[in-house]
Amino acid sequence: MKSALRFALLSLFALFAGSGNLSARELPKSALQNYVPWKDETVHTFENLLVQHEGRVKPLYTVARFTLLQFLGKSAVSFETQDGEQHKLHYAAWFLDVLFRGELAKDMPIFVIDDSEAVVQIGVSPKAKRDRYSYNELLPGRAKLSELSAQYAEKQDQYEKSEKDPQYELDRIEGMILTLGRNISSFEFLVGQLGFARQGDLLVNGNIMPPEITELAKRLDTVEMIDKMPEITVEQLVQMIRQPAGATEEERMFSAASRLFFFHASSARGLNLFPPKDPENEEWTSAGDLMLAGLASKDERPWVKEQLAGIQGLVKAQAEGEPAFHSALQAYSDKQHEVAEARGEGTHSKLEIQLYRGKWFSNSLVCFIFAFVVMAFSWLTPGSTMGKRLLFLAGALAFVGLVLNVYGITLRCIIRERPPITNLYDTVIFITATAVLLGLILEYFTRLGVGTLVAVVSGVLGMFLSIKYEAKEATDTMGQLVAVLDTNFWLATHVTIINIGYAAALVAALIGMVYLTGRFAGLFHRHENPDFYRLLTRMNYGIICFCLFFSLVGTVLGGIWANYSWGRFWGWDPKENGALMICLWTLVILHGRMAGWIREIGIHVQSLVLAIITTFSWWGVNNLGVGLHSYGFTEGVWGALYLSWAVMGVFMLMGGIVWFMERGAKSSRTATAPSGKEVTA
């Protein structure tokens, strides 16, 4: 049915697209000139509505958040009305406008274009080099955008099928146009979600639609049409849409009505607001799916009409004013939550809103940044009372940042009823928390300031990465689990333990950077404290031992899990090889130290090699596209990995310079007698 529906939808749009583009002078006057914001209580009621999205029942608040991130890259849209008044809409308020005041939403600048050449190619007059555009501003190039998007999507498919043949790779502008085309289509479907509940409301501007459909939309009640149409399938409906040559007036009217019905049914798919009739069925449905189901079965029509009438009631109440709309919205939300809770779904929706509204991870980043600034000031007065107080304050701020991070992780665990790690995003915030905790523990026992520095830098880098990753992916980070991960026991054991090992390896690298920076700087001012550097070496040695323990245990547990899931303990999968490389390299470091092959500088340089192996195992193997662990692909990650490896390479070069200089100085001392006379070697 879904494949037939996709085919029918493409056929329908082909029938409707015959009238071409709108010219710039035909654009309607901005509807935002009289914009009236929603009241807070209305927005809060709306955001609590439940929807099943990406396999999980969640508040509409979450869908709104990631939808706006996908379009705009931000969590709020700003615009100025013609009277000069500034408005900044949170994503829930924006989503409320999209569904219930679509004409206003079409004028909001929510589509980011990074290069104006992309809009030039679709025939739209550009603004700045990088700017935001509204749907109505891009509307003159809609047909050209559809054409180019389809062309570039096919090219991208060829790129994947040809195992990434460079001749099929999209260039920068082509990628922007493809992304813009997909975002515009998603926006159109959102605006059209409730079109069935309004007479005369179509997905796009009326002059793109055939006149007979536009006029018919003003007279017909789409929901009432369900009772009046015969019991037919989607395939049969498509045949009715295509009116035969020489059709009678009655046949033309019926064909037009069928097209209108199918248009609304197709536009209203994707937002699954309705719990299923069957308690055993786990899949929620959209208004469009309900309309098609009611069309196919007369037995389903009473229940279908009852569900759709709830949305019609909201639309009618919205036309009566915000007080009536808020009351209707509250009643609808209460009823929906009652049904969902009886099914055991959506029980943590309010907690999920608290998670995102609290901005725990963003606030955690702010604490770490302030901690770094305070610590930097402490370096201006090293060893003084003021310096020690500033260092303590930096540690306290880092601890607050850790608490905020851990609280956010805890909320995510409660919402999903899962252990803390289920996807790549979870690994970022968890590894950050672990690294910060290890740094603060080191500081508690050493009181050198190095532990605080490790904690602060780990917090800044980790939380910044988590926010950038979420914005880049623009998708729910608490989505449906990959099938092999769908087990709480192994998530709580193997995955958690192996990520603690990752965190320890990265902490070892940070300590190594501190050591190598100090020793390299010591080549120029010769004010080194040998005891300080020996203590750093002992710290790093202990962290590497800690890393070995958790990496080894985590790898063994991973093998047991693989045997449970795939029927073999070890299969030389890239992810397994990455874990093995971490274990082997920690053993190389420890055995090299015990045998005297490497000393202080060697330990710290090798800790950077360990970090390179760890980041490759953490991020790189997911992007290889092979093996059973290739489910975490992240576009653009190789560039970030190469940059991080280059930075660590610079520190290793510094270590090599220090070692070479020390070796030269030692040779000079050996070749010189205590009396100052030279002797033969």
Can you give me a brief rundown of this structure?
Helices cover 66% and strands 4% of the residues.
Cα-atom radius of gyration:
31 Å
Mean of pLDDT: 86
Query: In terms of per-residue confidence, which ranges show pLDDT below 50 for 5 or more consecutive residues?
Result: 1-28, 676-681
Number of helices: 26
Give the end-to-end Cα distance, rounded to a whole number of Å: 88 Å
**Helix content range:** 55-70%
How many beta-strand elements? 6
Largest sheet: 2 strands, antiparallel
| Shape label | elongated
Strand order of the largest sheet: 1-2
The structure class reads mainly alpha
Tell me the fraction of residues in β-strands, as a range: under 5%
Describe the structure.
With 681 residues, the protein is mainly alpha-helical. Among the domains are: 1-27 and 193-320, no CATH class; 488-667. 66% of the residues lie in helices and 4% in strands. It contains 26 helices and six strands. A two-stranded antiparallel sheet has the order 1-2. A two-stranded antiparallel ribbon has the order 3-4. Strands 5-6 form a two-stranded antiparallel sheet. α12 packs across α13 (249-267), α18 (360-378) runs antiparallel to α19 and α24 (574-594) runs antiparallel to α25 (600-618). The longest helix has 38 residues, at 488-525. It is elongated and about 110 Å long. The relative contact order is 0.06.
Characteristic key phrases:
26 helices; 681 residues; single chain; elongated; two-stranded antiparallel ribbon; disordered N terminus
